[in-house]
Design a protein that fits this description.
- With 599 residues, the chain is of the alpha/beta class.
- It has 3 domains: 2-123, Nuclear Transport Factor 2, Chain: A, CATH 3.10.450.50; 155-300 and 507-583, FAD/NAD(P)-binding domain (3-Layer(bba) Sandwich), CATH 3.50.50.60; 315-501, FAD/NAD(P)-binding domain (3-Layer(bba) Sandwich), CATH 3.50.50.60.
- Strands 1, 2, 3, 4, 5, 6 and 7 form a 7-stranded mixed β-sheet that branches.
- Helix 13 crosses helix 15.
- The radius of gyration is 25 Å and the shape is globular.
- The mean pLDDT is 95.
- Residues 129-152 are annotated as: Disordered.
- Keywords: Oxidoreductase.
- It comes from Celeribacter neptunius.
- This is Putative flavoprotein involved in K+ transport.
Length: 599
């Protein structure tokens, strides 16, 4: 190119892309992508969450979708200047489709598109009433028999689910259900969030008392309302609960507490669900068009069965049932597992003067909290990042713009830095006999989370207890229980008054089996994982989180889950998909998730 400036190179590629898309020249558009390129689309073009690879993948998606979604008008985002580093030009872009507007991030290498993220942000004609479109609130002037805001809200709450049916029912009122409920409210989609607890936030309040967020505050905002500037970096669980309860109220989410779904079924003829709800002792039947399971990717406890459990005279709890150490002072406790919950519970029990033994059944990835904050998250989610102009929204998009296929390549150097920085710490753990790993390919915590949702601990103090021998360490599988002990497969006998099974959680489609039917759960397949063919994430390659935030093989059934960051970011794309269907927009789905039943 005659002009090698980053801006001019970017503009030339965008002009060529716009011209090719406008003329319907799919081959010309695909030729703008490098051989090893990736187009990650969040709802804008695919009406799905889908990553296509290489010119062939781009061409295939466009052959399917170009006529329907008509992407185009790609421009450099106003106020942003493309930047070049190490031969890669990075540019923030905006674009339009036939039905919406979006923004994204493009990377160029050797004058061709290397990665492109396109993320739908709003639907034309159905924009959120925010910013300059915010409602007036007050109705100035005099009017007889006027209803107040409070009266209108009370009338809506009394009618919805009884006189008027919601378009969407969300089962599960944790951060995922709440975030989606807030998005739908702002888009004018009638929805009810159902939760079995007494108050919003009880999902957090009911957990063991030492629980706190291991992610820093900049990573954990909810949509629309950010945590205040004086909020603690790591939020205690009861404070999270209070925030969720406040948020639910001020965002006017129709949230039913003490409401447990007993059965749900789908009628293909009517295109509606029948959802039977026990609402505080009253049976209520809801008939939504769309059903969302927001029961949490860590919501269905794995409760292994071992021989002799029925003869054990002590207490056996899953980690989700464990409330804390208060009644176990002076008692012997065995914790089965070595991931986040196991470490947290062991540390709290030690602080409460219990005699604690952790049983490590398989190797665990551990990263120190301060190292993760500085090296792993600091460039995107920190005060320093904000000072450098990286807002939460930008950070989310930067993270989303890295295709899962190559994300590990960006993560490996970061975890290599952590391993070197904390070498003495890891030597201490290994000397104590703790089995460490860094993921199958050395890519560390984030990839383990995305691939399998388990296998790691962010160290906030428990590791030093293991190094010092104050929390005892045993290794191996559980063979059987005796009246007063757990016996491992190598014959080691661990006397116990309490056994905590920190054995993790099952796939979210287990909730579909319980609440709907095993047949529907089988139709959907497992939820979560990328198909990376690494431990606990077998192939085939999917390239996105299986069945999460996107259409599934079961019509009108969706899954919403993940951590606070994912709940914030991906709730938008699920809400836009639901809004589009409510308004009758054409939503042809490209690359519908195939069914895989993973072990």
């Amino acid at each position: 190119m005659l002009d090698s400036s980053a801006t001019n190179q970017t503009q030339e590629v965008l002009d060529s892309l716009n011209a090719a898309l406008e003329s319907g020249d799919i081959d010309r558009a695909a030729d703008l992508f490098a051989t090893d390129s990736y187009w990650r689309d969040l709802v804008a073009v695919s009406w799905n969450l889908k990553t296509v690879e290489g010119p062939e993948g781009v061409a295939d998606m466009l052959r399917s979708q170009l006529e329907h979604t008509r992407p185009g008008k790609f421009e450099i985002q106003s106020g942003e200047i493309p930047a070049e580093e190490d031969g890669v030009i990075t540019a923030w872009v905006t674009f339009e489709t036939k039905t919406g507007r979006g923004w994204g991030l493009m990377r160029l290498r050797d004058s061709r598109i290397w990665t492109l993220l396109t993320a739908l942000q709003e639907l034309k004609g159905f924009e959120e009433n925010r910013g300059t479109r915010r409602p007036m609130g007050a109705e100035h002037g005099a009017q007889k028999n006027r209803s107040s805001w409070k009266e209108r809200r009370e009338a809506e709450e009394a009618d919805l689910g009884y006189g008027t049916q919601p378009y969407v029912v969300i089962i599960g009122g944790g951060q995922g259900g709440i975030a989606l409920g807030a998005r739908l409210r702002q888009l004018g989609v009638s929805a009810i969030v159902l939760d079995k607890h007494d108050r919003p936030g009880d999902q957090w309040r009911s957990r063991y008392k030492s629980l706190c967020l291991h992610d820093p505050i900049w990573y954990d905002h909810l949509p629309y309302i950010k945590f205040p500037d004086n909020w603690p970096v790591f939020t205690p669980k009861d404070k999270v609960g209070d925030w969720l309860e406040m948020y639910t109220k001020v965002m006017e989410i129709n949230y039913w507490t003490r409401s447990e779904v007993t059965q749900a079924s789908y009628d293909e003829t009517s295109g509606k669900w029948t959802v039977e709800v026990n609402r505080d002792g009253e049976t209520v039947t809801l008939e939504p068009t769309q059903l969302v399971l927001a029961t949490g990717m860590s919501g269905k406890p794995n409760m292994p069965q071992f021989p002799g459990m029925e003869t054990f005279k002590g207490t056996i709890q899953h980690s989700s049932q464990h409330e804390g150490p208060d009644e176990w002072a002076g008692k012997k406790v065995v914790v089965i597992g070595s991931n986040n919950s196991a470490h947290d519970i062991c540390a709290a029990l030690w602080e409460g003067d219990a005699d604690v033994t952790m049983v490590q059944r398989s190797s665990t990835h551990i990263v120190r909290s301060d190292s993760l904050m500085e090296i792993g998250l600091g460039a995107l989610y920190s005060e320093e990042a904000l000072a450098n102009g990286v807002t939460t929204e930008k950070a989310d998009m930067i993270f989303a713009s890295l295709p899962y296929r190559i994300m590990h390549e960006f993560q490996i150097p970061l975890y290599d830095q952590m391993r070197e920085r904390d070498a003495g710490f890891y030597q201490g753990l290994e000397k104590a006999g703790f089995d460490l790993d860094w993921g199958d390919d050395g890519s560390g915590l984030f990839m383990k989370y995305l691939r399998r949702g388990s296998g790691y601990y962010i160290d906030v103090g428990a590791s030093q207890l293991i190094i010092n021998g104050e929390v005892k360490l045993a290794k191996g599988g559980v063979d059987h229980f005796e009246e007063d002990a757990v016996v491992l497969t190598d014959g080691t006998r661990l006397p116990a008054d309490l056994v905590v099974l920190a054995t993790g959680y099952g796939s979210m489609n287990g909730w579909a089996a319980d609440l709907i039917s095993p047949e529907v759960a089988d139709k959907v397949g497992k939820v979560w994982g990328l198909g990376s063919d690494t431990t606990k994430d077998p192939g085939p390659w999917e390239g996105e989180q299986r069945n999460m935030w996107k259409p599934t093989q079961q019509e009108h059934l969706w899954f919403m889950g993940g951590n606070l960051h994912q709940s914030r970011h991906y709730s938008l794309y699920l809400a836009l998909q639901l809004k589009a269907r409510l308004e009758g927009l054409d939503t042809p789905v490209y690359g519908l998730q195939q069914v895989h039943h993973l072990s």
